[in-house]
Amino acid sequence: MTDFPHLLLSVEDGVGILQLHHPEKRNALGWELHEEIIAALAAWAEDDAVSCVLVIGNEEYFCAGWRLDVLNESDADARRRFTDLALKLMKAFYDYPKPMVAAVAGVAPGYGMDVSNMCDITLASENAHFGSTQVKYAMNGFYHGMVQRLGTQRARRLFFTGDPIDAKEALRVGLVDDVVPVGSLRATALKLAKQIAEMGPELAVVLKGVALRSGNMDHLSALAFELSVTQDLLQRGIFKERIRVGNERLKAKESKAVERLTKS
Amino acid sequence: MADFKTLRTTAENGVGTIFLDRPEKRNALSTELFEELAEALQAWRRDDRVACVIVTGTEQLFSAGLDLETMNWATEADRLRWYDATYYGYLELLEYPKPTIAAVAGATFGGGCDIAVFCDIRVSSPDGRFGFPQVRFGLTPFVDPLQRIIGQSQAKLLVLTGRRIDATEALRIGLIDQIAPEGKLHETARGIADEIASTGVATAVRCTEMLRRSSAMDPMAAYVYGHVQYRDVHWNPEIVARVSAARTKVQTRTKNA
User: In angstroms, how far apart are the furthest CA atoms of chain B?
Assistant: First the structure.
């Protein structure tokens, strides 16, 4: 097992909590953080104790982006190895086999925002800001991640200007799914991640597979694909068990959905 | 290198070779074989000693296909393990960063034919036979990337009938790229692998990635992506050095001529 001096890793009720922890650099992604994150995600991908991953910093900041000092000080060869490493990290996020929640506080510039966009769901603290700041340094932000969540106009505006938007605006345009009061980010995000993890690792992998692939199919292919998934699931032990429990709960007039609706 | 039960592996001069090795089962595909195949490939992903991988059996036989014993699952856990093994086994080939060559002979049926199809390049001995007879039991083969390789019509013919074809027909429809002389399957595959490996790991990886991603893009996007790659290699100091070495060599030759 690799050492993770720049991460705080824990597993709680099916949620792998990957907390970025490199305060000297405000969690900017340098060589070490890249390697550690990639290794941690790879291990959890195959660990049945983890059904959902929560990627988080602290209540003040998430990730300050790519390590500009590394880019600035390296020679051409090291920069190339560094971009190769970034590609590896982004692949690990963008095609991860289990659901991922990002919880963003503070300013998430450039790569910081990009990484959050590659997760399935992003929650933001009221103090969060997002911007595709790479353009200021004559680099390119990750457009695909933005356009997946935003309309093309807003995606291009962010991509071309690099100007930041605050959490409220990010919520309005769909860059994040919820905004929570400062200081409550970890608790809220962990609660959501645990609700996702309730489905367990087997189903989590199947449903994430659907979410990753279906959107890239035409509508009739997607129907055929998704119904094949249904057929597959109907044969499985987890379905037989959960349909039995679910039926009993319904008969007893118990429903998690109703409980959660009335609570929120 | 891990000790495998269903495979043997070698790695030399830039070429990694995986020999399917279940002689008593005619290399039928088991859970363990798929798991070991994925493991062997994974180990070479970032190993700079390997630029290109050959997946093969013997000079006589590649794989008779699915091991029917495997499908006799004792528990649901065994069944799910088989699904994981096949899913990640084929996926490893499909998304493998380095070029893969299937060198096949004799029976190359069902899942064995799928493995060959998931490789980048296919070479066969003259007695190679191909097909997806499992469709006769109602089991589905992978239709993609098969149909990208041989075209929709030939793919339909093979998949819908489950018929078996010989190496000559396979070559004609593009299911295989070359027929090796009898008894020289491994040597021929090795020749191709050596050519690929001589371009270097970085180049082999880059070209593999380009070939794979471009087919999922529209033509204009693929063109722009191709040109970005072309510009990018010109910035690469290692490649610049190779080009200038070649230039010096040509100049010296011209001067001496």
Answer: 74
> CA-to-CA distance for B167 and B191, rounded, in angstroms?
20
Chain A: which residues have CB within 8 Å of chain B?
76-77, 80, 202, 236-237
Among A144, A164, A197, the domain-final residue is A197
**Nearest chain A alpha carbon to B235:** A76
Domain that holds residue A14: 7-197
Residues of chain B positioned with their CB less than 8 A from the CB of A77: 237-238
Cβ B237–A202 below 8 Å, yes or no? no
* Each residue's pLDDT tens digit, A184-222: 999 999 999 999 999 999 999 999 999 999 988 999 999
User: CATH for B7-197, among 3.20.20.330, 3.90.226.10, 3.40.190.10, 3.40.50.1110?
Assistant: 3.90.226.10
Residue A164 shares a structural domain with residue A229: no
pTM for the full predicted model = 0.86
DSSP A18: E
H/E stretch holding A83 reads helix A76-94
Same domain as A254, residue A141: no
CATH number of the CATH domain containing A99? 3.90.226.10
Q: Do B237 and A236 touch (CB under 8 A)?
A: no
Which residues are CB-neighbours of A247 under 8 A, at least 6 positions away? none
Per DSSP, the residues of B199-247 read T-HHHHHHHHHHHHHHTTS-HHHHHHHHHHHHHHHHH-HHHHHHHHHHH
ipTM here = 0.77
Query: How many interface pairs between A and B have CB atoms less than 8 angstroms apart?
Result: 8
Q: How far apart are CA B26 and CA B68, in angstroms?
A: 12
